[in-house]
């Protein structure tokens, strides 16, 4: 787990200057800049502990549960970008956490819409819009005031060292 970002450089023999190497989140320009901005901020009141960025990487994709039929789940996974991609990509490393399961528009909603629109069948963009609104409402629940406060002011974590 990388608490400090760093710039990785390579000096090939056939080049006259170093070349930046990007391959991990914690060596990216964005991570280095976020770390610098955090260090430049005034400290939280009565706290002189080191401040570090924890990179949350969310990932989601629909999962079909059966070979036949429509049963599926939409899980939300969390990885820490401070871990190396080589460890994150190993299922045996157990670095992935299930955070939530997203709901999808139920068939009853689609039936309700079709019953109430009369002759005019809603277009695919309408259902896409409804699905997006439901998805964003669920993210709003996850990124609640407690999360935003932790994002803006940090949280105290006990580290293994």
From TrEMBL:
Pfam families: Plavaka. This is Uncharacterized protein. It comes from Paxillus involutus ATCC 200175.
